[in-house]
Amino acid sequence: MNIFIAGLSYQISETDLRELFEEYGEVSSARIITDRDTRRSKGYGFVEMSDDTEGQHAIDELNGAEYDGRTLSVSIARPRAEGDRSQQRNRNNRNYGNRDYRERSKY
Is 81 left (phi over 0), alpha (psi -120 to 50) or beta? Predict the structure, then answer.
């Protein structure tokens, strides 16, 4: 089961996140999402748990719980929309045609 966690402290490590969820069962992976440019945490992450029952128990217990001074929002992760971000970005840029950046910034 893939679990989405929002409201994480910006100082939390992937090890801390893994340990938090290991209280409820076996954790396959734990990821903190970081900004590509600054490498700082974005305040959310994902935990993969091998057993769905244990994953649901972790969600039930941790959703709304306070951790490191912040209230967590924990839920089953939704699948990513079809296509990746670069494809979406290309679709958005197509609307501008051949106009240069200065023209685009006016809109």
Answer: beta
With 0-12 CB in 10 A as exposed, 13-18 as middle and 19+ as buried, what is 30? buried
Model pTM? 0.74
DSSP 83: S
DSSP secondary structure string for all residues of 21-32: HHTSS-EEEEEE
Neighbours of 36 (CB within 10 A): 7
Distance of CA 42 to CAs 65, 68, 95, Å? 19, 15, 29
pLDDT digits (tens, 9 = 90+) for 30-73: 999 999 999 999 999 999 999 999 999 999 999 999 999 999 99
- Domains defined along the chain, listed by start: 1-71 (3.30.70.330)
Dihedral-angle region of residue 7 (phi above 0 means left; psi in -120 to 50 means alpha; beta otherwise): left
* ∠ Cα 44 79 41 (to 5°): 15
